[in-house]
Amino acid sequence: MPKALVVEDEAKIARFLELELTHEGYQVKVVGDGRAGLAQAAEWKPDVMILDLMLPGLSGIEVCRRIRQSEKGSRLPILMLTAKDDISDKVMGLDMGADDYMTKPFAIEELLARMRVMLARGARGRSVSGETLSAGALTLTPRSHEAALDGQPLQLTKKEYDLLLCLMSHSGEALTRDFLLENVWGYSYDGDNNVVDVYVRYLRNKIDAAAGERYIHTIRGVGYMFRHERY
Ligand code: CA
Fold first, then answer.
1. What is the pLDDT of residues 133-157, one digit of tens each?
2. I need a labelling partner for 175 at 20 to 30 A (CA). Which of 69, 89, 193, 204 fits?
3. Can you tell me the mean pLDDT for 222-226?
4. What is the pTM of this model?
5. What is the spatial distance between Cα 155 and Cα 166, in angstroms, rounded to a whole number?
6. Residues measured by CB to lie within 5 Å of ligand 1, the ion
């Protein structure tokens, strides 16, 4: 049963969501402010989060930003809700890493459909459209095609960037050279898969060596895994 965390301070909407989501087969937890939402995202480990934008304590945008910065919650699918039909809030919410966005009042069927999409996407590896990925001092912003270490832009070639994006969006997973080859170089690539090792070395020189921290790990007999680790 997927766990849905609802962070909403308007009691009527919170209660409505709780009933509908429970009926839909979710295990539901409701909290009414941003700090509680942040705490439950870490402790209860939901599969999906519905996050209101205007909240007491921390705003939805701030909650979203902090979740994306945390190691554990960084992949949690987040659907943001707002009463305001304001394009700047929408853009900011998506920039801070929300996966989707709905304006109140919303149709419950549409919300449920979008949650199903987010869960399915999460299950097969996260789509990284527009979302900033971060780990330790490293950030990567697919929307602008930029990577930075300690806030300083990293000069990456196209292939280095693509490889890093692939590794980061599967953070914590051991990836084979063939998987990386197919996803970064494409199925049509018929060269040697040593090219993966060569590019991993390039990335390690630019990232791990520069940061003095380990990001790209060799998994013996398999390939590579991205995971931030301090020495
Ligand atoms: Ca609110």
1. 889 899 998 777 889 999 899 998 8
2. 69
3. 93
4. 0.54
5. 17
6. 9, 52, 54
